[in-house]
Every structure is written in C-alpha cells, then in structure tokens.
UniProtKB/TrEMBL annotation, chains A, B:
Organism of derivation: Dyadobacter luteus
One MF term in the entry's GO annotations: DNA-binding transcription factor activity
InterPro entries: HTH_LacI (IPR000843), LacI/GalR-like_sensor (IPR046335), Lambda_DNA-bd_dom_sf (IPR010982), Peripla_BP_I (IPR028082)
UniProt-recorded name of the protein: LacI family transcriptional regulator
Source species, domain of life: Bacteria
Sequence ranges assigned to domain HTH lacI-type in this UniProt record: 4-58
Length: 343, 343
C-alpha cells in the first residue's frame, strides 16, 4: 500500500530528500512554491508518512490533542474531520477528548494530554469554563495551543472563529424581514465568547430595525442545551409568556433540535405560529419537518486552518511574531422553518 | 470541588482505605456487595479519583484507547458517552481515534495507541478491515482488547454486540405486515459482522413469510454510506429497476439518512410509494419528514458494558477463564415512514 517514499518524491521532482522531507513537514525553511509542488505530488501519488517512524526520529510524539465540549454535535464532529484530514497528511496523530461541558473534566483532559506529551493542543472551551489558569500556565511553559470556536479573550495565541455577530445579525434580520417582531434568543451561558457575540448580533439587528430589546425574550441554558430538561424549561418559559415569541433564534446544534422538539410536542405550527432559525451544522436540516433554516459554520475548513496554525507553532516555535485570529463567515440557509410571513 | 477522599469514604463506611481503594478500582478481590456500597456512596458524595495521581502510583497509564469508524455517527457518539461515563468514574482517561473506515488508519491508530502505552483497547472494526493481524499480535502480547458492534469472529476476547439478526428480522417482518413485498436492503460490505447478521435476519423474515429472496434488491455500500455518491448510486440502481422496491431497510445511520435524502430529491412519497426503516440512533428521528421508523441500539449501555469488561481484563489479567459475548436487543420504533399499508 505505502510504496512511495520520500526518496521517490525527491527523484521525481529533482529535489534533495531533505527538502522534500521538510516540505512535507510544512517547515518554514522551504518556500511556499516548493511546498505546494511537493505536497501536490505526494497527494497525487498517495504518499503517506509513517507517524511512528517520524516520532522516533525527532523525539516528538507527533500527536495533537483536541479538547471539545462533545463529539455528539455535528459542528464539532465535522470540525474534527477537518483537523484529522490535515494532521494525518502532515504525519500527526489526533487524540480526541471531550470535556462534556465540564470545567473539571477540561482540566483533567489537559493534564492528561500534557502528561502523555502531545506536541500541541486544539481547544474549544467548555460552557462551564471561566477560569483559564490551566491553559495560561501551559502557554507560559511553551506548549503550543490554538483555540477555536469558543475562544478566550484574554489569552494571546492563534484563534479560529466564525463571525458570530454577523451570523446572528443576518438570521435576526431575516426573521424581522419575514414579519416577526417578538424574536426570542435561546443561547448558552453568556461568558462564552460565542454566546456574547451572537447575543450582540441579535440585539444590533433588533435595534437597527427599530425593535426594542426585551431581556425576557433571551434564555440562557447553562449546559448549552446538553440537558434536555434545561432546554425544555427555557422553552416553556417562553411559551407561557403573556406575549409569546413569534420566532426563535437558537444558538447551537442541541438548542436548535431541542427547541424544534418542544415546538412539535406542543403542536405549534412552524413557521406560522413560531418561526425557527438555528445555528446548526446538522446534516439532515433539509429532511426535518419543516426543513430547517440554519446558520451554518464552515466547520471542516475551520478545523483545517486551526490545525495548520497549530502545526506551524509546533514546528517553528521561534518564528511567531504576532498571533492571528482567523474569522470565517457563516452561511444562512433559508428553508421552510422561517419562510413566508406570519399568518 | 474534590473535597472527599478515599479516607473519608473508608471512615464513613467503616472499611479500610485499601478496601475502598480496591472497590473503586473494581478489583476482583472485593465482593460485589461491598463494591456496590462503596461505589454508591462515592457517587452520592461526588467522589472523583485523580487519574494523574493514580497513574503515577501504579505505573499504568490509566487510559483506554477507543478506535471507531467515525464519530459523526449518532450510534458511535452515544456509545462513547457510555464508555466515558464508566471510565471516568473508575479513574481512566478515554482516548478516542477514528479509523474513517480505513484499514490503514485503523492500523496506524492501533500502533500509535500501543506506543503511547494505553492499558487496553476498545475497537469497532472499519468497514474495510479484513486482515486482523494487528489485533491478533497485540492480544498475544497480552494487551487487553474488547470489541464492540463490528466484531471479528476469529478473535477470542470479550465482545459486546446487538442481536442484529433479530433487529433486522423484526424490521423486515414489520414491513411485510404493513403490506410491502419488494423490500430492498441497503447495507455495508458483507465481510462486516453486522452486515452479515442483518442480511441473514432480512432473508429469514422474507423466507418465513413466503417471499422469495432476490439478490438484486440488496445493495452493498463499501464505505458504509460514508461516500454520498456511493449511497446515491445504490439508490438510483434500486429506483430504476423494472420493479422498484416498495420498502427499504437501511443498515446504518448514514445509509438511512442518505436514503431519505435520495427519496426526497426524487419526490417519492414516504411511506405511500416507498416505506423506509433504518438502523439509526439519530436523535431527531421523530422530527424528520416523515418521522422515521428506526431500529435503535442501546448504544450508551453497550459502551458502559464494553468498558467494564475491558477494565476487568486490565485489572485482573489472570482471572479470565472464559470470554463473554454480551448481546443486547434492539428496539423497533415504528413511526410514519413505514406506517399504514401501501397505497
């Protein structure tokens, strides 16, 4: 299966084996053009590095730890596939851990990964993490860490995010334009970066369209919708208001499907009685009843860029003059759950 | 947060600290009643072992490697949550790897996990794995391995499975009883244990109901539905048959949602023109259009029992006289996608 070697690539492209080897490791010593040439040829010929051999040779573990809140979430599982596709092609193993939205488990995962000598970490914070000392200490000690999606404001490193403000703004404006006025927002704890940004986009869209912001239409789920009961309680509060919402903007995968489920159980017609838009990367959005309007994040690409930034930190630790925050745009996929105007 | 110690538990229950410690490690030296007492009290008091400290003390890594085909699959992500819930409470870390249905990556993951000194492995085979030498060698060297879901017939160790034959039999019989006669079966490669068993259950139900088995109604997807194109091609073949099926039994999460998607695209009425039943643990089955009849597997419980068996192998390596295969029953959740008789 793995018949092609670095030597074969070097011979074919008329380069030295050390150039090919460094190009494949994405080394900063090799120029972009040569890297592209080598990588494309390697891809074409199905070249695969041997991670164990690499690991023995340069005394690194050639592995990357990934800590996410949960894998049973379409956004995160797609993101991990993005991470793995690049990591694997560069000869790194990807070790996946779940924090289950628990600060304690996030800390335990971090300690474990460090004790097992991963070369770097990719992290999306748990919804219950407010203290960041476990990451700050590691960064001080020189451990490369890149944050994605749920990122800390106070730690300086590479970050990969989406423009949550804009995604939320566009979704809210879409609901307003389709005639909704009492738009509720179902979201995660406010100390998460993504929750703050999505709330801000929602508020700005209301303001720009002359609708007063009403705090009672915003519900925070402290476990990010992980607990069904929490989700249902928030929805029941909204539904039993004197003036219940005529639309809901849900801020995560789980919150969106939880919300849809509660609306079904209560026999509420979507979108006639309540329209629904959710931040979700669920693969079956168009197969739901009704087809769901979704704010979709480019999860695969985010994962690819996050790991690329991390591997750059790992392999060229002294070349970082300035950290980047890469921001991606979300896409609003309008479907029946928010289409048409209010009846 | 972690204020309660083993000493506190020992004092409260009037046991020695070493008994409590061994009970919490699920040691065979402690009887079941005492274990239950200790574990329940520990649970009640939110006792949490410190995996790093445990690891230093007994020179084991206190970690378990899990290799699954993919995490973007409801069955596997629920199963992993089952594994983690037990592993964490017994002081083990869970390290998750995806094979992406690739034999090569399954081997690479296995080698990596062994090189990082995990204490044992939990494995569900990739759809492209036919050669098992990488696992056989490890078992010979004494590495504890428990297989689940997609298990090898030829390796002797603990296994956790569902009764795929019965699950498939019941689903097929349900379709026959609702008036369908041309029932197609969309499945994974036949050398996977689950595919063989599901095919056998399907065939037996046809036979018991006097319907001749027709090989042209069975379609194999070699990547288990991971490639959309593969899935679509199989469906198109079925739809363009002179006598297209009036029902489909899909054998996995991805095959089921892929099939539903193709039926939607072709504007085929479900269940009137074609009824659909799928092996799937998707959380939104009842929110789909139409609500989907599903063969559901007790994924969480399977994960819990698999890790329990594995930890027993790890901690009491000499006490195994005979390996077990634990088999769970599936549940058929009948919903609109297969309800009512043919129009």
């Amino acid at each position: 299966m793995e018949t092609i070697t670095i030597k074969d690539i070097a011979r074919a492209l008329n380069l030295s084996t050390s150039t090919v080897s460094r190009a494949l490791r994405n080394s900063y010593e090799i120029n972009a053009e040569t890297k592209k040439l080598v990588m494309e040829y390697a891809e074409k010929m199905h070249y695969r590095p041997n991670p164990i051999a690499l690991s023995l040779r340069d005394s690194k573990s050639k592995s990357i730890g990934v800590i996410i809140p949960e894998i049973a979430n379409n956004f995160f599982s797609q993101l991990i596939n993005g991470i793995e596709s690049i990591a694997y092609s560069l000869g790194y193993h990807t070790v996946i851990f779940q924090s289950h939205e628990s600060y304690e488990r996030e800390v335990a995962n971090t300690n474990y990964l460090v004790s097992r000598k991963v070369d770097g970490l990719l992290v999306s914070l748990s919804s219950l993490t407010t203290d960041l000392v476990h990451f700050e200490e590691l960064i001080e000690k020189g451990m490369p860490i890149v944050f994605f999606d749920r990122v800390p404001n106070d730690i300086e490193t590479h970050k990969v995010v989406v423009d949550n403000f804009l995604g939320s703004y566009e979704a809210t404006e879409h609901l307003i334009q389709s005639g909704r006025r009492r738009i509720a927002h179902l979201t995660s704890p406010i100390y998460l970066s993504i929750a703050t940004e999505r709330l801000a986009g929602y508020k700005k869209a209301l303001e720009d369209n002359g609708i007063a912001f009403d705090e009672s239409y915003v519900k925070y789920c402290h476990h990010g919708g992980k607990l069904t009961t929490e989700n249902e309680a928030a929805m029941q509060e909204l539904l039993s208001m004197p003036e219940p919402p005529d639309a809901i903007l849900a801020a995560s995968d789980r919150l969106t499907s939880g919300c849809l489920s509660v609306l079904h159980k209560n026999h509420i017609r979507i979108p006639e009685e309540i329209a629904l838009v959710g931040f979700t990367n669920i693969g079956v959005a168009d197969l739901l009843n009704p087809p769901l309007t979704a704010v979709v994040q480019p999860a695969m690409e985010m994962g690819q860029q996050a790991v690329e930034l991390l591997i750059r930190l790992i392999e060229n630790p002294k070349k970082i003059s300035k950290f980047e925050t890469r921001s991606f745009k979300t896409s609003l996929m309008v479907r029946e759950s928010s289409a048409g105007s209010r009846s």
